[in-house]
Amino acid sequence: MTPERAKQLDRLPWFEVRLPRARGDFTWIYLWGAPLRVSHWVAALSLVALFATGIFISQPLFVTNGEASSHFLMGRFRFAHFLAATFLIMAGIIRVYWLFAGNKFERWSALVPFTRRNLRAMFQFLKSYATFNSRLQPHFVGHNPLAQVAYTSIYVGTTIMICTGFAMYGQSNPGGIFYTAFAWVPALLGGLQNVRLVHHLISWLYPIFFSIHVYLVIRSDYLERGGVVSSMFTGGTYVSSRDTFEDCDVGGQPSVPWRNGAHE
Amino acid sequence: MASTKVVIDPITRIEGHLRIEVQADAGKISGSWASATMFRGIETIMTGRDPRDAWAYTQRICGVCTTVHAIASVRAVEDALDITVPRNANIIRNLVHGMQYIQDHVIHFYHLHALDWVDVVSALSADPDKAAALARSISPWPNNDAAHFRAVQVRLKKFVGTGQLGIFANGYWGHPAYKLPPEANLMAVSHYLEALDWQRDVIRLHTVFGGKNPHPNFLVGGMASAINLDETATINAVRLADVQGMIRKAKDFVEQVYWPDLVAIAGFYKEWGAIGGGVPNFLACGEFPESDPRDLKSLYFPPGIILDKDLTTVHEYDHKKVAEYITSSWYTYDGGDDKGLHPWEGETNPKYTGPTPPYEYLQGEKKYTWMKAPRYEGKAMQVGPLARMLVGYASGHADIKELVGAALGKLQVGPAALFSTLGRTAARGIETVLVARKMEDWFGQLIANVKAGDTATFNKDKWDPSRWPKKSQGYGYLDAPRGALGHWVQIEDGKIARYQCVVPSTWNCSPRDAQGQMGAYEAALVDNHPLARPDQPLEILRTIHSFDPCLACGVH
Amino acid sequence: MFIRSAEPWLDGSTLGEHLEESGVSRRSFLEFCAEMAVILGLGSAAAPSVAQALEAQQRPTVIWLEMQECTGCVESVLRTEAPTIGDLVLDVISLDYSETLMAAAGHAAEKARADSMAKHKGSYLLVVTGSVPTKEDGIYCTMAGKTIRQHLEEAAAGAAAIIAVGACAHWGSVQAARPNPTGAVGVRDIIKNKPILNIAGCPPIGDTVTATVVHYLTFGRLPASDHEGRPLFAYGNRIHDQCSRRAHFDAGQYVENFDDENARRGWCLYQVGCKGPATYSPCPITQWNQRTNWPIGAGHPCIGCTEPYFWDTMAPFYQRLPEVGGFGVEGRIDSIGATLAVGAAAGVVAHAGMTVMHQIRRRRSTNQLPESGSPSSGETNDG
Ligand code: HEM
Ligand code: HEM
Ligand code: NFV
Ligand code: SF4
Ligand code: SF4
Ligand code: F3S
Ligand SMILES: [Mg+2]
Fold this sequence. Notes:
The complex is a heterotrimer of chains A (264), B (556) and C (383). Chain A has 10 helices and 2 strands; from the N terminus they run H-E-H-H-H-H-H-H-H-H-H-E. Chain A is mostly helical and 264 residues long. Chain A is elongated. Chain B has helices spanning 42-46, 54-59, 68-80, 87-113, 128-138, 146-161, 182-202, 204-210, 237-267, 385-394, 398-411, 421-451, 504-508, 520-525, 538-545, 551-555, and strands at residues 4-8, 18-25, 28-36, 282-284, 287-289, 299-301, 304-306, 322-325, 331-332, 349-350, 373-376, 471-480, 483-492, 495-502. Chain C has 383 residues and is an alpha/beta fold. Helices cover 39% and strands 9% of the residues of chain C. In chain C, strand 5 and strand 6 (146-147) form a beta hairpin. Residues 1-12 and 369-383 of chain C have low confidence and may be disordered. At the B-C interface, helix 1, helix 4, helix 6, helix 7 and helix 8 of B face helix 4, helix 5, strand 2, helix 6 and strand 5 of C. The complex binds protoporphyrin IX containing FE (2 copies), NI-FE oxidized active center, iron/sulfur cluster (2 copies), FE3-S4 cluster and magnesium ion.
């Protein structure tokens, strides 16, 4: 491994675990800082919870019998919903901070893939997914451009959910902080009914995203042997120093078929 | 003497915006034009909406005869979707509509109509003892005593003394057409005030079953107020007892105050039995189904048509023979403005062609009103209490014959006197008595059902739109306080495709049609109609008010 | 109630004097004030100040203008209890113009209004029901040959304050519902230079109107209001948070069909479309017609009649959420959502399968099976 490469690796934030250096011609690349990993998993879990409880709120599946005073079913679901919401917010705050403090794989710039090069790569990904042919895929250590837009849209969607959610939440205490802080939401959407509607509609984004997302990460893990999945736990992944990547230089030679025009 | 143009705008003590123009010659009226000056376009607003919501929108056609458009609407939708409502729901609707009749008619008599016959100022000079004697001679009503009348008179005296006359300012007090002795005036004023409190209490029946008044809630397929004697939040014994109390209170007031007052006052104005008859044809669509609205046999007030004041034959009423003309109205029809359209082909395309405001006269304009002109087989019709009582009388309805006979006897006039301004006002009182008595029957039926274990108030079979035909159309009739009302609905793919209403006041306040036939208001004003002082058109108010105009209803 | 007296209110005499004449006991008067103070949400502690203020008053002039409306709001005020309409008109205020109630008609009525407006210029209270049609220069509602808009502007000019009673007067109510054929708008859209209070509802509860008038007489100003101009003493809280059926909501006890078992137990109407969660109104507290009942109390979902443009925003009335492109969300749209979610899952499985097939096929064609063990760039590249 080149000295520049070593320097580059040394430049990682202070609190990162010291990195194993090159093993044979494999390099350990540090991708996800602890803040990202923590916020990812916290968000992932609370979003699953929010969707589940939210659906119950919108369609109470079963009714309880007997004295109202001896039950609190909807109450519990709403409480769980708001609790999960709180965790989501905390994860969100960490992530937002990390959008600016994180490394280049974590920065906001890693979520807006709109350079000509990235757009081309994105197209290649679509093509490869459509033809089930992973050889057409450009190589990325971090999020590939397509994943980037998916994540960005999840972040945007979640921001809307949080705003509409708290706008509704605030109604039970008019003049309270949530009511006041989010008063602009009903004003913008044209009334509480629309706030509720938007909140309800966007909630369907999550179950759809979930399966596709999980599939794609596991898929790339299997195809690229990159250990992508584990990267969300350990924070990093091994890459062959002989390989080249769109988003990171590990010193290898260009060998990606779609770039030197090779075909099957 | 040259004919003078008289304009009365606004006509007050009615619902809505009505303008009357007449030509007066030598104390008589020779020409008349009735103009409705407000339009909202509610029929247009209905299209594309959920038929189950329609009742709420159409109910806002009018808040005076609240409930009537809601019931007509749910009946129309239920007819289109072939829904039969549970017996209890039908009875509850009768109770609600019945109380609407009673309250609406009493308010009309005392608060909208009375000041045309009663001189408030003259009441100041009445002798409370004589007034009490007069009142007691016609009714056992407890408040008909000297102390009460004196208190009212003092209150009135001081009120007038303030110079802040409020709603009584600029009345035509002292007009020669006022005929009542001061004592009768005082009695009437006292009951004017009592009626204000009474109406507030009895109308609560709407609140028990519909949650509020004005504009109680209804439901396609029945009523939303579930019955459960063992719950606090449902129709239970407490609420039913409350309802029973209101029914009694309503009946007492109608029998002991409204009806006696009406007969007494009418006695001083018999000449009005020969004035303001107008359109000689009468239409009643029938009301108060005791089983299903589609079972016309079960209607308490029978449907029917009377032509040319001929009480020997009652013709069958068929809604398919109704058509609306716009020859003199500010609308256009795609097929030409002289056509008449049945509501299922009806159109509502507003097109104002009148003078730009501010303007002085509408008479002479080809089109001069927002009111359409409904006609039955091309004939102008009169609808309302008189139409109902005549149809009932002519078809031998026992209760109606008895009470109409009694009234004619008391006033010593023949049936001919019914075709008049006085006749309309009397018929309204007669039917109020009948309905007030009938309420107890309906209430009894409800109790009997509940006793027998039938508490159903809603039929959910067709609630879900997936159970509806792709296309359907329905007719919802209802003989409202002011007369025959119809809602016609067409439903496509679960949404309203067309909605048309032909309303009592549309019939009565209609303008000239393609053949130049005048509507009921206009015809009445030129039927042997006096006008002593063109600058104080009291007589015109009497005849117009005898129809109990509702303009918001008529135009919608 | 104290105002039911034989003694009317003499011009110039204060209410205090008036009450002595009428022999109304101090006690019953204070009771009324307490009643009012509570309705106004001031707490009975404020009763003395209400009393003081009322005693000092003289019958103030009220002009009531009716525009494009159904008159339901007028009727609602006829149902008031404290004070009753009779007491209100004879003893509390001087109602100098009201088309529904006044004796005079035509020119005489117009004159009554003109005279009063001239005499009390700048001091009278203007009560307005109904909306103003703006299309076609306002010819959809005229009176005495003039557009109602012109009448409104004239009446507003000399008014101290305006009370807009009902959904019509503030949002145009039903006639402003899509497609609003007459371009109906509320008073606030026409009159910009006067304090306007919004007594929301279709109709509002009559006592809310009279309470507002009393507040105005008592404190010489309109009551504090929310962002929709609705007085906080009545519209400060959400129906859903004051509802008698809320315990059932929290418990998870819902009416699923009208008149079902649960309806007969008075359970929550959330699932049949109740708009209580999005509606601010005094209904659950003051209730209607002398506390007889209220819509939800009578088993029908709230349709949100005190909220902006509720005829469009709260419809359909029997579904919790607005429709999207004419389709019910709880029904059609949700099943689309669910289908997409399940579809995504299924698609993912299918895609995985295809990918594996593709792998195997390619390996066969390049008859090179992947050696297990440490990955190599070669493999990363050709699969
Ligand atoms: C992004 C993840 C979220 C999802 C998937 C989600 C889902 C849902 C769903 C489906 C509903 C039912 C809406 C209806 O049909 O009425 C709902 C209601 C609600 N959600 Fe969320 N939500 C999320 C985030 C939030 C957040 C961050 C808050 C903030 C406090 C929130 C607060 C609420 C509230 C207050 C309600 C209405 C509950 C009620 O009125 O009883 N939600 N949510
Ligand atoms: C609903 C649940 C989940 C949500 C909403 C979610 C969301 C996200 C987001 C927003 C990112 C981008 C991180 C960033 O740069 O900000 C991400 C990345 C990632 N997630 Fe998840 N995630 C979920 C569940 C999972 C699960 C169950 C796994 C493991 C199987 C997983 C594995 C990963 C991996 C490996 C990455 C990095 C992949 C890449 O580089 O593109 N996620 N996820
Ligand atoms: N005309 C009329 Fe109504 C009645 N009665 C409606 O159907 O008043 Ni508003
Ligand atoms: S707000 Fe509603 S009740 Fe009041 S006048 Fe308008 S439509 Fe009628
Ligand atoms: S009935 Fe309506 S307002 Fe009452 S608790 Fe249920 S949803 Fe809320
Ligand atoms: S519909 Fe209106 S009357 Fe009250 S309960 Fe809802 S606000
Ligand atoms: Mg019509």
